[in-house]
Amino acid sequence: MAIIASPIQPKPLSLPFCILYGSQTRGIDEGREYYERGAASSLGARWVLGEHELMLRQCGPTIPSLQIGSLKVALPIIQGGMGVGVSRSGLAAAVARAEGIGVIASVGLGAITKGLDRDFVSANQEVLREEISRARAASDGAIGVNVMSAVSDSAVLIETAVESGADLLLLGAGLPRLPSSVARRVKEIPTRFVVIVSSLRAMQIIFQLWSRHYATVPDAVVVEGPLAGGHLGFRREQLSDPAHSLEVLLPPIVAEAARMETVHQKSIPVIAAGGIFTGSDIHRMFSLGAQGVQMGTRFAATVESDASDEFKQVYVRSSKDDIIIIDSPVGLPGRAIRNQFTDDIALGLKRPFVCPFRCLTRCDPQTAPYCIASALVKAMQGDMAHGFAFAGANAWRVDRLLTVQELVTSLVDEFNECVAAEGVWDGPARSPVPETV
Predict the structure, then answer these.
(1) Tens of pLDDT along 330-378?
(2) Can you tell me the distance from the alpha carbon of 396 to that of 322, in angstroms, rounded to the nearest whole number?
(3) Quick one: which H or E segment has residue 420?
(4) What pLDDT sits at residue 363?
(5) 232, 239 in Cβ contact below 8 A?
(6) What is each CA distance from 420 to 63, 283, 284, 296, 405, in whole angstroms?
(7) Distance between CA atoms of residues 269 and 219, nearest Å
(8) Cα(320)–Cα(323) distance, rounded to whole angstroms?
(9) Which residues pair with 110 in a beta bridge?
(10) Structural domains of the chain, ranges and CATH numbers in brackets
(11) d(Cα 118, Cα 328) in Å, to the nearest integer?
């Protein structure tokens, strides 16, 4: 492979250098070697190696890696699981190729490709297995599965994800419990378990339950703040209360995770989520003790997102005033992009439906004004007259569709700009372990 070198002569090294291939850190030493051979200037230069392009940048320490148990990824970004069908194998594989963690949303997958005229549980199980297999075929990176505890078939979905070799299981939307077939071998299976919480109290309850019943605790914690999209783990009045902001929620959970690390003799990274839009946001979360971030909205509006183009364009066309809070039929507030469907529901208009399967345990088909599963599937497919798009608080800031790699590169660049401006980077901050709890 030929190396096309920059004609600019290198300057003396004053900072560490690294090579970035996409988002992948190739190593400080390798970057220094290339630099000293005259392959690049301190301003940055490009090489073409075969069909790939590499770039050398004066970046100092680049964005840290993320390790959850034995799973380590170069990019500390988990792509949020977005149902129904927005994040399937296509998006998950693209994020995994960028060396983040790609996540398949398991909810309602059978309704997308198998229809609603067959057994709901077996259809979901079959399609989830297929999606994991496709993601594996398209990438050798980290693939996770998001399972909502609130869905009726959560136990089957957890079993299927584990049996299919998912690297990570993210459990949210309720109290996460493991089926007995998984619980009895939770310490031996390679799948890592991450719980999603919206308060310190929720984390403590889950960790106590897992310690008592499974003799272990989750491998990581996602802290989802009130700026997230979709169903929210807050009361409506808490969503605008500064006391419930992610910046307030995060530090005590980081401290509790540090305490749990000592008690259970294992690393428990904390991942921040909800409203994270830029590399600067990532840097801010790291300064508060997070060791990774979860992002949904930015990845929903990528070329590789599994939703229809019409769904994605709803994000691009949205304004700040279009981002609204709805009352979901399951009794939770949700953040969505306003359209005629949401306007009709707000006026009390109903969309009659026949429920083929009670997919959400908290949904009562007899009183629900519409089927939220059907509305989300229709929207994902581009039929906005019969559905709506869930989205985070910053969805209105999306002005165009990017590829996953373009998005990742911009996030890493923005993060490194913050590091350079700060002058010193000691890695994610960790709160001291409290003496009393």
Answers:
(1) 778 999 999 999 999 888 877 655 556 666 556 566 677 778 888 998 9
(2) 8
(3) helix 404-422
(4) 55
(5) yes
(6) 12, 11, 14, 27, 22
(7) 7
(8) 6
(9) none
(10) 1-60 (no CATH), 66-300 (3.20.20.70), 318-397 (no CATH)
(11) 26
